[in-house]
Design a protein that fits this description.
This protein is mainly β. It has strands at residues 6-13, 16-25, 31-34, 42-49, 52-58, 64-68, 74-78, 86-89, 95-96, 101-102, 105-111, 131-133, 143-150, 155-160, 176-181, 185-192, 205-207, 214-221, 224-230, 233-237, 240-245. The termini are far apart. The model has no long low-confidence stretch (mean pLDDT 86).
Length: 249
Amino acid sequence: MDSHAKRRIFINKKDERFQIFSFEQRNDGSIYAASPTFANAKWISFKHNPQGPIPIATDAIGEGKLSVHGSGMVGVRNNDNPHEHDLVIKGNQLLNRDRNEVGIRHLFTTFMDEPSYLPLNSPAFNRQSDYSMQANEDLKPFVLVFFAVPLQAGSIDFRFSLHEDEMVSIPNDILGLHSFALKYHNVIWFAYRTKNMDKWPKYAHFSYQDGHSIPLFIGTGPQIFRLEFRLPKYEINGDSITIDCSLQD
């Protein structure tokens, strides 16, 4: 797949293709992401101290974007305050030009609100860089997990599992795993559902950490969820990369 500095991300729902994200990667390696409902999204994160993790949450920040800087800093900001970030966390670098290194990192996880935005003046695939996720005909609530992996990677082995009592009974409900290419990175996305994810949340919920630990949304009741954190194992063998997010014994 060709690489592009900017991409619009769509998903099909029956006969329509709705835009759910836009991504951009700049020359310094920084990745920026926004969504049509970003202004109303809820943000959840944690700070860690000796007494345990402290939840940090912020309500809608208005029109803005998620900024994952090449240096590894990640935060969200309002478009009217380009130099003021909320929920700032330092983490894995995306790009180090001095060492000519391109990094691997988790970008963010989101429990999606129902796709509904149709850019009527420029529909899906009106631009060469547009990308669409393929879903089954009956699109149901789901969680998306995004990773950035160097373009040079030849193959990606992504592993993921859930507790048996969290799994949905119909495997086809899961959208699966795929990727699209930005300037320096392939953005790998993985979609999953758990039990008790029968209704779309009123607002999209986002969570991110340091790029290594991965927050996952797990349904616990009607429109209720908890966050679970995984510490994946990364392996590099030549140009092949393994990201293992499976449950650990």
